[in-house]
Amino acid sequence: MYAVIEDSGTQFKVAEGMRVDVDLRDVEPGGAVEFDKVLFCSKDDIAKVGTPYVESAVVRGRVEAEFKDKKVISFKMRRRKASRRKKGHRQRYLRVLITDIVSP
Predict the structure, then answer these.
(1) Chain segment 14-31, per-residue pLDDT in tens
(2) Less CB within 10 Å around the terminal CB: N or C of the chain?
């Protein structure tokens, strides 16, 4: 069984036991997360496609950790002007273990 969910404008194909990295939210490690924006559900040979979401379908998960991604460097330079700007950014994510997919 698998599902396609939407979270913060990003779509993920998930199955039970899978780990997904989603945008940071106010949940402690070990806490529960529910994704109610389910776009597609498939169980055995039965598939349900949402318009735009499948009603009463929920994907549940448990937060394993909060972590930072690799550093991204933004460097801007104007030639012959002695003007440079260097910035770094590390995006914060939650690692979620998908525990249950409930479809109607």
Answers:
(1) 999 999 999 999 999 999
(2) C
